[in-house]
Amino acid sequence: MAGARVPVIVGPTAVGKTAVALALAASWPLEIISADSRQIYRRLDIGTAKPTPKQCAAVVHHGLNQVDPGQRYSAGRFAADAARWIKEIRARGRMPVVVGGTGLYIRALADGLFLEPPLDAARRRAVATWAATLDSRELVRFASRFDPTFSGGGRQRASRGVEIALLTGRPLSFWQRAAKTRGAIDPWYVVLTVPRQVLHQRIERRAQEMVERGLIQEVAAVLAEGLSPKAPGLDAIGIREAVEYLHGNRSRESVAEAVATSTRQYAKRQETWFRHQLAGEVLVLDATPSPAVVADQIIHAWTRAEQR
What is the reported pTM? Predict the structure, then answer.
């Protein structure tokens, strides 16, 4: 571990992480660092469930709207950016709080990543060209064959695993073990949970609200810029289903349910990841009560931890 202790609020999508972090701001002079690999994309606000403009006006958020759809943004870049944001927040006399559900981003910041071996640029382009011909499921299957420890994820993560395996002859997990850097913070984890039925209800409600608020129109506007449907940022849950509708591969009426189904599956993977992959001190809290109640529990636990 490296760096000062930082609260890190994690949990599955729709569990209420943002609401709890905003409630904490009533007692802590905090700024939020979003650890979400989809909210980094500009213009995809509804599809990535970003905090609203009103929420961002109430509490400063970092990590939103970093790149345009179609551009890549790695976990390593997030770790470097987040480490800088944390220093700047502390310099202002405020408290950084990391909030998000992307496990790889959390790991990169807290535990460090690997020092990438040299990769030939021409060969990288050739691999990228080939990978672009595969759909997401095929790409994930290749990543799993090259690395039996590959735990799944989106197109960008699978592409990365395939690229490293093909160009180095060793799986990504090897390099993550053999050439690891140090983490930038000492994480104090808060894992939010709710009963499965409650989470599913929240997911279904969110999916329906996304469509009603204009998810399909938002995605159509981004596609109108000329981006490929397989471009980074467009393979996210919610956005992917809207793309399928816009290309005639599903009905409009099926979009919300398809988003909810994919989100439930993703949330289950997140729960498994956070249950087994977090190292260090972990506080697990039921997020069924109001955000203010959960925030109060976090404050009391943090105070006790700081006194030790």
Answer: 0.82
